[in-house]
Amino acid sequence: MSSNEQMDFYLKTLSLSRIRESYLVESENAAKAKLSYQDFLYRLVESEVLSKIDRSINRNMKMSGFPMIRKIEEFDFSYQPKLDEKLIRELANLNFMNDAKNIIFLGPPGVGKTHLAVALGIKACLASKKVAFYSADSLTQLLATHEVAGSLKSIIETLTKVDLLIIDELGYIELSKKTATLFFQLIAKRYEKKSIIITSNKPFEEWGQIFVDEVVASAIIDRLLHHSYPFFINGKSYRMKNLLKN
Ligand code: ADP
Ligand code: MG
Q1: Contact residues of ligand 1, CB 6 A cut-off
Q2: 246 has pLDDT over 50
Q3: How far apart, in whole angstroms, are the C-alpha atoms of residue 209 and residue 222?
Q4: Which domains does the chain have, with CATH numbers?
């Protein structure tokens, strides 16, 4: 084996894939730029670390199940002038997660509820937090399936470990009494421990219908709202933006 081949084998063995890709070019560049050995090594090691962080964030994002990729920076606050931009930007610093506070986005379709929920979720991923995004429908199906399989406890434990749970589109489908109770168990487990972001097209007064039972509904609302940032977004639908311009 030539020394290059040997080097390639060593770097592969150590899983230093970024260095493996770039060290030949980087060493030529370093020679040209007359870098010190120390600076050269520093650069190589730094590039490996950055690429590992990148990969881990990408993996984290993929695992989160976002239906779309949206950033806070892409949100046009001038389109929702009543929305507290300063508070949303503050929440993007993720301090709410340290205090296990919840965020609730209420409003009609198209006002950016999912956009904001995803954007905050992505911030959390970038901070290496574990995030899980579910539609309310798929989450309740997941709980119901595990309940039938006798593994409800373990799925609730798994979902309680997630740093940020995003539940999108609560209220599009009414739950059964059974699934409402399962949902309550999850909310109760995360209460004061881990944050939840919820989006819904239904105002709180109508949550009784979503959860069938007023008592379950108010128990859920109590826990979600106790330490929370509720936002009522009632501006125009962004989907209509171009239509309304004409
Ligand atoms: P909702 O969840 O409230 O129904 P979405 O978040 O899905 O609405 O928004 C619909 C589409 O419009 C998405 O592609 C979203 O990125 C975009 N959108 C909504 N509001 C804004 C906004 N204020 N600025 C930029 N894009 C927006
Ligand atoms: Mg939505």
Answers
A1: 70, 74-76, 79-80, 107, 109-115, 199, 238-239
A2: no
A3: 16
A4: 3-63 (no CATH), 65-245 (3.40.50.300)
Which pLDDT tens digit goes with each residue over 30-65?
Answer: 999 999 999 999 999 999 999 999 999 999 999 999
Rounded Cα distance between 179 and 144, Å, is 6
The backbone torsions φ and ψ at residue 132, rounded to the nearest 5 degrees and listed phi first, read -130, 125
Residue nearest to atom 1 of ligand 1 (CA): 110
Neighbours of ion ligand 2 (CB under 5 A): 114
What is the pTM assigned to this prediction?
0.88
Q: How far is CA 122 from CA 30, 60, 62, 133, 166, in A?
A: 36, 9, 10, 10, 11
Measured CA to CA, the distance from residue 109 to residue 115 in angstroms comes to: 11
Q: Does 245 score more than 70 pLDDT?
A: no
- pLDDT tens, residue by residue, 11-31: 999 999 999 999 999 999 999
Q: Which residues pair with 228 in a beta bridge?
A: 102
